[in-house]
Amino acid sequence: MWNVVVILIFTGDLGLSIKPDESTKVAVIPEWWQYLPDVISRLQVNSIEIANLTTNSLETQYDKIDEVQMYLNESQIDVIIGPCSKPIKIAAEELQVPYLCTTSDPAPEIRTFKILPALTDFIEAISKLVYSPFLRKEKAELKAIIYDGNKGFHFDDDLLNNRLTSRVWVMNDENIDTKRKTITHSLMLMRKHLIREILVLCDPETVKLLLETAWELAMMSLPFRWYFYDPAFQLREILENLPRSENSFTVFTLMPGFEHGRNLDLNTILTFDAISLISKISDNSTSGEKRQVIWSALEKKSFRGLTGSIHFGTGHHRINYSINIFHFNGTKHFKLGSWWAGDSPELRIVKLENTSEVQRWRDRNQTYTFPLRGRTIKVVTIIEEPFVMFKKGHENRTGNDRFEGYCVELLQKLSETLDFKFELYLVHDNKFGARLPNGQWNGMVGEVLAGNATMVVASLSVNAQREAAIDFTKPFMTRYVTVIMKIPTTPTKIFEFISPLSRTIYLCTLSACIVVACSLYFFERNSVYEKREKVTFKGCVWYTFGTLLEGGTEGTPATTSGRILMYTWCFFVLILVASYTANWAAFLTVKKIKAPVKSIYDLASQKEIQYGTVKSSAILSFFETSNIETFRKIGTELANNPRNIVNTSADGYQRVRAGRYGFFWDSTVNSYKTNKECQLTTIGPEFAPRGYGVGVPPGATYLEELSINILRLGDNGFLDQLQQKWWGERKCLSDEEEDEQNARGLKLENAAGLFFVLGAGIVLSVFVLFAQNFIRTIRPQIKTGKNENVT
Predict the structure, then answer these.
(1) From start to end of 189-343, where are the E strands?
(2) Cβ-contact 487, 729 below 8 angstroms
């Protein structure tokens, strides 16, 4: 038999040093020494030694690996227990020392055994209960996930991409006030977005703060259902001390019973199981290499511990154990069932207990009657293409028949589904809604707050101020903010044929032509073997220029050097002319549309083009309150130039058509405009995403039913059909189509310069002809006059 000796690696002196012979030496990583007293007091082993080992401050991971290896060899350590550490894993692998890891580590190692089950197992167990139809007669609820960022949870893509997973929030290490604000904000968003089931994977302190905030927001009781990751069942006391109400708390834990492991934290429990496991291996071993015997036993045998069955499978993760599921309903607790971590997919299932409490939990059902059923309500809206528009001949129509558009059809569909009638009317001040200095609201928001309208259905985006004033349904569409501008007209260039080559190329070509002519003249006059006395410089110049313009020339150079020069010049001309031809073809066929500015950042940094938005709009409020430098600069510019802020979006588009004006407005409306009017374009990037929601008075009881039906319309494709109907396809030519149209034939404005050059050449030729004849006529008279003077 071997005795068990636990050697605690730490800096300091505990004053104990017992070294029995033939002992199994267990090295416990320094951070874990604090859990040993509770473990030793509860666990009976043959002998325990707590020895001192001072470790130096190490600068690199390599130094740490070397020192750990040295210590393991000198102390003849047989097994390591503690949190996962990469340097220690490397050292253990090198020396073939078994390593019982007590924290989460997804990386497989030969000698490393993870005694804490993988987080993915808990996530799988939670998802199989929460995302499966265990609750009878219950509609599927949207879910949210809240987890500790420092734990590094990894969620399955199927879980994150599930249509029911609406939000995922991470709780980072923050001070308690900041964390409380984050939690409050998250819970309010959950309530706003009708999220009824919350999956929580956080430490007990964060869970306590989370539930306290949920109690303040009235989100702790039904219909909200909470699911907790709690391997050591440390939430028992927190849940037991909560106010009694109709709660629904479900805990996923390794503890097999409600009282198992009480008053012990997770690290202590895992340390207990690790030392207990090594003790059992030692007590049943008589000979052999200790490290190999322990490693072989960990790989092949199963053990029982506080956390249930301990058996390691492929990758040395735990398998064949149970995750137990306990439920708190506010007055009592009971076991719902368990999830078995089998070694095959068909065994990894949730099995519920066959008890009356579980049956009542499964049969829970709530009825809800829509408050507006059978009523006729007033709905306020605003004219904004294509959401709400006047029909043709609306002057001769009355009531709802005057209007058409995306929002009108959406409202009609909701009224049919929920069995209510409505009367549409336009907001009297033609504004969306903004908070005034006196605290009152104008526009459509003001109509709802004043009780004049039961709801607002329009392209009303949700922002913080409006959300604080009224309630909104789930968004039926998401919009961004873009800038729409008029595409500037490109002036036609008469001498466009010059554009393919730069001015520098033209100057260099002219210079090269002169150099070649001079060189040719020199070669022709000074060749020893093939000299031509009659060659002239003028002839060389004309010959060179004629070759450049492919005009044809008479004769060829007589000298070999001259011919080599001209062949080289011809090759140069060939490439130059080919390049010119290709570039000119591109200039004629490719027509690039360029906006006056490339982005909103360029727009904000210039003064030539004015820009603005609509008064009392969410976009203006965004610029006024933004902390981003570019947007703050735009807000300041708008405040200094109020003439650029228009009363309605129609006024803004009118200024855009006039030119040299950029209009900040919803990307949805801008897209509609650019689809219809080819002279308009948008510039990005898109920013300030907001949702369009149906606005109702704060606390309206019909909000939830409206939101659910909007989500259903989105799921069945109705909203997509509406968008396709009212936005349609862009009727303007695409870039490829425009290029194809331009390539069909050369237009006069593109080649007008060629005719001018031809005309100039004809005029110049005529002038030269007359000049030569004039000179020829007066030359004899000049000579006669000179002779008379001589006489």
Answers:
(1) 195-201, 225-229, 249-253, 303-305, 308-310, 322-328, 333-340
(2) no
Backbone angles phi, psi at 380, to 5 degrees: -95, 145
Crossing angle for the helix pair 560-589 and 735-743, to the nearest 10 degrees: 130
- Please tell me the least confidently modeled range out of 474-488, 628-642, 686-700: 686-700
In DSSP notation, 140-187 reads: PPEEEEEEEGGGT----HHHHTSTTEEEEEEE-S--HHHHHHHHHHHH
**Residue 17 pLDDT more than 50?**
no
pLDDT of the residue at 551: 62
Instruction: Read off the DSSP letter of residue 217.
Output: T
Predicted local distance difference test score (pLDDT) of residue 1: 43
Share the mean pLDDT of the chain: 78
Distance (Å, rounded) from C-alpha 68 to C-alpha 492?
79
The three-class DSSP label of residue 450 is: coil
Question: Which of 85, 87, 100, 96 has the alpha carbon at shortest distance from 27?
Answer: 100
Between CA 278 and CA 274 the distance in angstroms is 6
Evaluate whether 28 touches 82 at the Cβ level (below 8 Å). yes
The pLDDT, as a whole number, for residue 381 is 95
Spatial separation of the C-alpha atoms in residues 772 and 518, rounded to whole Å: 25
In this structure, are residues 324 and 335 in contact, taking their beta carbons and an 8 Å threshold?
yes
> Which among 134-148, 595-609, 672-686 has the top mean pLDDT?
672-686
Structure tokens belonging to residue 263:
């008053």
Whole-structure pTM value: 0.48
DSSP string for 749-774 = HHHHHHHHHHHHHHHHHHHHHHHHHH
226, β-bridge pairs: 198, 249
**Whether the Cβ atoms of residue 97 and residue 78 lie closer than 8 Å to each other:** yes
Enumerate residues 6+ apart whose C-beta is below 8 A from 150. 172, 173
| pLDDT grade for 10, boundaries at 50, 70 and 90 | very low
Alpha-carbon gap, residue 675 to 508, rounded angstroms:
47
Q: Report the 10 Å Cβ neighbour count for 366.
A: 9
* Residues comprising the chain, all counted: 791
Tens digits of residue pLDDT in 370-399 = 566 777 888 999 998 889 999 988 888 898
Per-residue model confidence as pLDDT tens digits over 165-210: 878 888 876 778 888 888 877 876 776 577 888 999 888 888 999 9
Number of H helices, E strands in the chain: 26, 26
Q: Kindly state the average pLDDT of the residues 709-734.
A: 84
Pairwise CA distance, residues 430 & 384, whole Å: 10
Separation between Cα atoms, residue 618 and residue 620, nearest integer Å: 6
Q: Report the interhelical angle of 703-715 vs 718-727 (nearest 10°).
A: 70
**Closest-CA residue to 515 (of 483, 545, 556):** 545
| Residue 4 pLDDT | 46
- Exposed, middle or buried by CB within 10 Å (0-12, 13-18, 19+), for 643? exposed
